[in-house]
Amino acid sequence: MRLPGQAASPTKEMGMKKILLSAATVVAFVVYALFQKGGQPAGAVSVSAATAPSTSTSTVSGTAVAASGGLKDGTYVGSAENASYGTVQVQAVMKGGKITDVKFLTYPSDRRTSQQINSRAIPILQQETIAAQSANVNTVTGATFTSQAFVASLQSALAQAGV
């Protein structure tokens, strides 16, 4: 029992501090989550020239027939992009105005870790691209550099196809 003028016990003060700190953390998380929801979806890749500079030119082959989807049919090679541990360059195949295939021409593979990461990331990026029919794909967890370079190279190839 506390008498008038007597300070609260240290245990109660610590408990209040923990509660206030927890409440502040929850509020900060909610604000952060709302901020993220207002912009791009969490995990979406946004690549600029500063984050993934182009290191080569792009080439085109195949027919250049306008398709119903707005993309020109053909095979388009994207620019070679820096992925920190190597270069990523993709080839996109368009048929009937749709992306029908995406191939990695180059990707980091000289280190065991790069091989493990990319053996998992490459099929995911390929599947997501065909499903999305665009370069708007999520970053693969653990393969951020490869994912960013993939998106930049794919955007380059899609630009040639009329996107």
Structure overview:
This protein is α+β, with helices and mostly antiparallel strands. The chain has 2 domains: 9-39; 59-160, Alpha-Beta Complex (Sufe protein. Chain: A). Helices cover 41% and strands 17% of the residues. It is built from 3 helices and 5 strands, in the order H-E-E-E-E-E-H-H. It has helices at residues 10-38, 112-132, 144-160; strands at residues 59-61, 74-77, 81-82, 87-95, 98-106. Strands 1, 2, 3, 4 and 5 form a 5-stranded antiparallel sheet that branches. The chain is elongated and about 85 Å long. Mean pLDDT is 76; it is low at 37-68.
SSE arrangement:
Elements: H1 10-38, E1 59-61, E2 74-77, E3 81-82, E4 87-95, E5 98-106, H2 112-132, H3 144-160
Count of separate DSSP helical elements: 3
Cα distance spanning the termini: 75 Å
Shape: elongated
Number of strands: 5
What is the CATH architecture descriptor of the largest domain? Answer: Alpha-Beta Complex
Which short descriptors sum up this protein?
alpha+beta; Sufe protein. Chain: A
Give a quick summary of the entry.
By secondary structure, the chain is of the alpha+beta class. The chain has helices at residues 10-38, 112-132, 144-160; strands at 59-61, 74-77, 81-82, 87-95, 98-106.
